[in-house]
Design a protein that fits this description.
alpha+beta
Length: 191
């Protein structure tokens, strides 16, 4: 596990300090994060299965890439860097206009993130980094949603929350041990 500092933020996403990544997750402090959604020209979503060596949610299916910008690093540049490191994909990324705060217990750690959803388009096969992911696949949104509802524990909590945001059905995908979930920004509408 590579140790590095990440950015602590307040409820309005203003930086309030930095701290070592694992310590922040042990203490459950609110920090900035991003989740990258990659689509192909068939409108399928790229999923990765997290490597078994990952400290959070090993072996679970998730979106193409999720991580934390380092202090002083621009969000989009951090996301592009991590997408290349994890999946071998170099593409332009855009902000979706969705930001949310969630807090969930994951084993002995707590994910307490102010998460920015980003997206990009890619057609092809990723070149996954085995330290980050051990499998990948393309799936249609409806198929992901249906499988998540049938097998929620096969997916990371943050990916379930992202997919629920795009779900017009009243039934939400369950996230066990979820302590908080609040959409802070949705397609240009501030809370």
């Amino acid at each position: 596990i590579i140790m590095y500092d990440i950015l602590l933020v307040d409820e309005d996403n203003n930086p309030v300090g930095t701290g070592e990544k694992m310590d922040i997750h042990r203490r459950g402090l609110l920090h900035r994060a991003f989740s990258v959604m990659v689509y192909n020209s068939k409108r399928e979503v790229l999923l990765q299965r997290r490597a078994l060596s990952k400290y959070t949610c090993p072996g679970l299916w998730s979106n193409a890439c999720c991580s934390h910008p380092r202090p002083g690093e621009h969000l989009l540049l951090a996301a592009k860097r991590r997408l290349k490191e994890e999946m071998g994909i170099a593409i332009p990324l855009k902000e979706v206009g969705i930001e949310f705060i969630y807090r969930v217990k994951v084993g002995d750690l707590t994910e307490n993130e102010y998460d920015h959803v980003l997206y990009g388009q890619f057609d092809g096969d990723p070149r996954i980094n085995p330290e980050e992911a051990d499998d990948w696949k393309w799936m249609g949104f409806v198929d992901i949603r249906n499988d998540m509802k049938a097998n929620p524990e096969a997916y990371t909590p943050w990916f379930r929350l992202i997919i629920s945001q795009g779900d017009n059905e009243a039934e939400q995908i369950p996230v066990q041990r979820l302590e908080r979930y609040e959409v802070r920004k949705l397609i240009g509408n501030n809370r």
